[in-house]
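User: quick one - fold this with guanosine-5'-diphosphate bound?
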Amino acid sequence: MMFKENKINQRLKKLEQHLKQENPILSEVVQNFRELDRISRRLGFLQREESHATRTPWWPLISILGIYSAGKSTFINNFLQYDLQAVGIQAVDDKFSVICFTNDNKERVLPGLALDADPRFPLYKISQAIEEVAAGQGEHIDAYLQLKTCPSEILRGKILIDSPGFDADAQRTSTLRITDHIIDLSDLVLVFFDARHPETGSMRDTLEHLVKTTVNRRDSNKFLYILNQIDVTANEDNLEEVFAAWQRALAQYGLTAGSSYAIYNENSAIPFENENVRARFEGKRAADFSAIYRRIEQVSVERAYRIVGMLEQTAQMLRQDVVSRLQRFIERWRRKVLWVEGSILAGLAAAFLALTVWGGYWEGISLKLPFWDLVARNIYIKYGLLAILIAVAGYVHFSIRSWAARKVTKKLLAEIKDPDLLPNHRRALRKSSRWWRSLFLPNPAGWGRRTSARMEKVVDDSNAYIQKLNDEYTNPSGEENGELSSEEQAMEASRLRDTLRGNTGPCISS
Ligand SMILES: Nc1nc2c(ncn2[C@@H]2O[C@H](COP(=O)(O)OP(=O)(O)O)[C@@H](O)[C@H]2O)c(=O)[nH]1
Ligand SMILES: [Mg+2]
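Assistant: Sure. Structure tokens for the protein plus guanosine-5'-diphosphate:
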């Protein structure tokens, strides 16, 4: 049956190859995830086709949301330096486009189904989520989503999502559901507004669904609010007014966190009449664009740290949560079985004693049972009775074992917070309490000193990866990276550590 196992193996191999080009450190991390997979399978925690690696989103996800015609697609084309997205089309024809890198040298469009069915992509099983909020819409997944591949080098190691506006009423619920889902999964969310109407009704929808629902999030600093098309304010030269009006509109919905920017697209911009104004606008545009691009680059770095963090957390979870729960299980289970069986034996002994005393079969300290001679003399009866006794005792013993295992399992499973992992925990508990496993084995099934050492090594490795990532990204000597002062670097490094510690990132659950 080895060939079946290869499916997940192949997938991990592909991932490894892909990451080798993008980020060699992460491709080593895949190896460690494999090691954790092996350990987890021996513990019974993972099935053959499951992997901890598929629970990790490997590519940073940057989504571009906002109202229709705010210039989202134009921005993406400009960012990619590639004419990928149709610009200025009707909202009705518009879909969410998940944009991934390809080295095929030509772009390709795949139906939404490709995204729904592949756990490597961020929108895996999105149709289920849609079905929950809009019955019947889940099967029309292709009407909402598409996968686009693009050979732009700038895209390497990232996934972008371009989104439609919120105009079409019929598809509203599903569109909003997908939007929420995408926001949850994203590492960075660019919310686009346009300076042509910074506070009018057309923006209310966007404000309500993007701003109001997101201000209280823990990850609210992943939102960048972008006022686009500010070139339209050039001729009246009232950028400050328009910007202030926009900020007020955002504040009205409670937005205080996150950063805001003002930009425009040079190629789509209306001509500037005044040279001074033009210079000012170009300055503003250049500054804000580079700030936005820097955040986008930063996201890849953060994601690398987060993946390594995820590796360590998975190892810790296995050790502290899975293995220690199994150990507690075994202890409690053993105690329960011994206690129940002890009580039964004590009860039987007491009953026997009481009956024999009452029957007057005791002569001093020796017991004279009337039928004992018969039993002792005939070996058939003797061994027959013994066999029956053993069978009954065995039956009772194994019934008690499995009853106690069920009881203890139920108690321990109630502690588990993540319902997705319940079947895994249950399977591991079951594996450690199979009938052939002695009650007195100190370790859970699949766990021992060697496995423990292997796990230790994964934790050590993940610390080493952090060091490597630090060397690669923070560059303490500051020789090559002249942009950051040492103070900024220290801040950057501490921000990365916070990201690593605080946020496990979105999970693709399979
Ligand atoms: N004046 C001006 N027009 C823009 C700018 N960015 C995009 N546009 C135009 O706005 C229209 C809508 O752009 P598009 O990218 O399709 O918007 P989307 O619906 O948000 O994807 C197109 O006709 C673009 O040429 C900008 O910065 N300034
Ligand atoms: Mg568009």
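One thing worth noting: Residues 61-304 form a domain with the Rossmann fold fold (CATH 3.40.50.300).
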